[in-house]
Amino acid sequence: MEPLMLLPLTVLLSYLGHGTGAGATPPRFDSIFSFGNSYADTGNFVLQCAGLPSVPFNQSPYGETFFRRPTGRPSDGRLIIDFIAEALQVPLLPPFLSSRQPHQDLDFSRGANFAIVGGTALDVGFFLRRSAASVPPFRSSLRVQIGWFRRLKRSLCNTTTAAAAAGCKDRLMARSLFVVGELGSNDYGYILAGGKSLPEAKSFVPEVVKAICRGIERLVEEGARHMVVSGTLPAGCMPMALTKYGYGAGGKGKGNATTEYDRRTGCLRRLNGLAQYHNWMLREAVGRMRRKYPTTKLVYADFYRPVARLLRRPAKFGFTEEPIRACCGGGGPYNYNPGAACGSPGSTVCRQPSAHVHWDGIHLTEAAYKYIANGWLNGLYAYPSILDLLQ
Fold it and tell me: Which residue in the list 18, 278, 358, 363 is annotated as catalytic?
């Protein structure tokens, strides 16, 4: 039998008893609300930067694989959140900041995306106090994103009576899936860019995890009953990180290739160790929160293992190109050049993005995201699986 991981989402759902044909169980979720950073942003950053000089994510070749045009997604096509929405029969989530645009008549009744490029777990104030040399340019932390959600919830349940509004909010929360996407990679990136060492960055992990947990609790207090919480991916495998911190690649790495790099993948071991420590702390915290909030179903979604698996055995999953080299970029050993980023003059794009794991040196390709989404849906990389929430 073909492994579940390799089945198309529609076939996977049918196989698991959640098909869309006659007699199928109606969708459990009416809407999805998504939070996080660029790994889940469906256009908020481009909207935030409206009026500023050209934003690469809003330029070709972004979006070329599926949408055939840029949509503000930092990939060649769909993201994990898009595949989750498709599998749960919910429309692709509109970016919340589109509500600020004139003459926009978007329907947020089926969900919204609050994730944004540069999103952090920690607030800007934390960086100003503790790492003032490197501070996020926008206020887009998880707390801010939840504030956006609260504003939207009030507008969705803006009825004539308090009782009707309360009933609307109860129904909305009961039949919605909340996805707290990857957070932490930007936090550690700002900390390292501010001159902190890796051991110093590691000392911030409890603060980052605590901030994510505070966000989860705020959503539970709002009434969320079904939630997915994502860990972080192996940061030491990103072409951007390898270019910036790698030994002998023009970066700032110390030591030598034997001590700095994983022999199987070519990734930076110490950066991956930071990600693994973050994931361990977050998964433990999610377990404690399951016990604290037994009426809310919490899924821990592993972002690290599926990416690591693709990098260790890429050809097995159809990724035939160098797994730590970006499809789109401005040259160099990993095809990442901050002076010629993907979508900017001087960059080039590969012919077959689906053969690559990495898209632009920071983000992944649609093909990689699809593999990860399948694992979250069927439980190979999620605890419990997202499809278990349909029971």
Answer: 363
User: Distance (Å, rounded) from C-alpha 152 to C-alpha 158?
Assistant: 10
Tokens linked to 384: 């419990």
Q: List helix spans (H) across 293-341.
A: 304-312
Closest to 212 (Cα-Cα) out of 197, 232, 195, 194: 232
Q: Mean of the per-residue pLDDT values for the chain?
A: 89
Q: Which helix (H) or strand (E) holds 191?
A: helix 185-193
More confident residue, 328 or 26: 328
- Whether the CB-CB separation of 232 and 276 falls below 8 Å is answered with no
Is 363 assigned a catalytic role?
yes
Is residue 358 part of the annotated active site? The answer reads: no
Of 80-84, 233-237, 260-264, minimum mean pLDDT range: 260-264
Given the residues 41, 82, 302, 360, the one annotated as active site? 360
Which of 31, 38, 140, 230 is labelled catalytic?
38
pLDDT tier, 203 (very low <50, low <70, confident <90, very high otherwise): very high
Are the beta carbons of 104 and 70 closer than 8 angstroms? no
Any catalytic annotation for residue 76? no
- Angle, vertex CA 242, rays to CA 240 and CA 245, nearest 5: 100
Q: What is the mean pLDDT of residues 366-380?
A: 98
Q: Where are the beta strands (DSSP E) in 269-355?
A: 297-301, 328-329, 348-349
